[in-house]
Design goal:
The protein is built from two helices and 16 strands. It has 242 residues and is mostly beta strands. The chain folds into two domains: 147 residues, Beta Barrel (Virus Head Decoration Protein, Chain: A); 82 residues, no CATH class. Strands 1, 2, 3, 4, 12, 15 and 16 form a seven-stranded antiparallel beta sheet that branches. Strands 5-11-7-8-9-10-6 form a seven-stranded mixed beta sheet, with no helix packed on it. Strands 13-14 form a two-stranded antiparallel sheet.
């Protein structure tokens, strides 16, 4: 699952058929209401336009997520040793990575791994999950927050399967439930490249993720848990008007 079952709850659960073209691959995504053939349906918006009507977060216990977030600290080797290290995961998502060293410097992310990184920059091999540092980070700890894609095997190992024999049942029936009303949601479906402690507005982003910038509507939400090495989930309190 893509949200923490132990800490997330909602005062309402509503179910609707899915709008044409919508495929809900995992939980913890923000769903929107649309009218299709004069009937309300749920839609996962691939690219937000700003006019969406968010109604809740996806609850699909029969699905396996294809991506999740992680937070981990890496100690940079001391020069003149190799200034490279491996993250625990591979297949990182471009523009969904944040790195902050123990001196408080936010490092620029360079997805081109070849060559030497500039000062206050870390090079990231997205496919392999390998990182390369500038010498001015030698000996420091760097905390990475990132979103990465899961293989089916990784998804099973990390999350297990709550409904093994009914996998994908919501897709077969074109139906999905949403946690709505007053919600406390601890989700791994958020923009991992930004600082969630600064109090910026929480918006609906592409593909149902939580973001701080863009044209998607501002949610009536506040952050109640910032992702960290203890828990990679972003905690938000949201009130949905339904």
């Amino acid at each position: 699952m893509a949200f923490d079952l132990k800490r997330s709850y909602s005062t309402q659960t509503i179910g609707r058929s899915l709008a044409a073209g919508s495929v809900i691959e995992q939980e913890g995504l923000i769903l929107c209401s649309v009218l299709e053939d004069s009937v309300e349906k749920f839609k996962l918006v691939d690219v937000v336009a700003g006019s969406e009507v968010p109604v809740g977060f996806s609850k699909t216990a029969d699905s396996l997520p294809d991506r999740t977030s992680a937070v981990e600290a890496v100690t940079v080797p001391s020069a003149p040793a190799s200034l490279e290290a491996d993250l625990r995961n591979r297949n990182l998502v471009l523009n969904r990575i944040r790195a902050v060293d123990s001196a408080g410097t936010v490092l620029a992310i360079d997805p081109v791994f070849a060559g030497a990184p500039a000062a206050n920059t870390v090079k990231v091999d997205l496919a392999q999950g390998r990182v390369k540092f500038h010498a001015n980070q030698a000996g420091l700890d760097v905390t990475f927050t990132y979103l990465y894609y899961l293989t089916l095997t990784e998804a099973k190992q990390k999350f297990g399967e709550r409904f093994v024999n009914n996998r994908g049942l919501h897709a077969d029936f074109g139906f999905c439930e949403a946690g709505s009303g007053h919600v406390e949601l601890y989700t791994d479906q958020y923009d991992a490249s930004v600082d969630w402690s600064v109090g910026n507005p929480v918006r609906l982003g592409d593909k149902g993720q939580l973001v701080q910038a863009g044209v998607g509507p501002v949610l009536k939400a506040s952050v109640i848990h910032v992702p960290g090495v203890d828990s990679p989930y972003l905690g938000v309190r949201i009130h949905f008007h339904v």
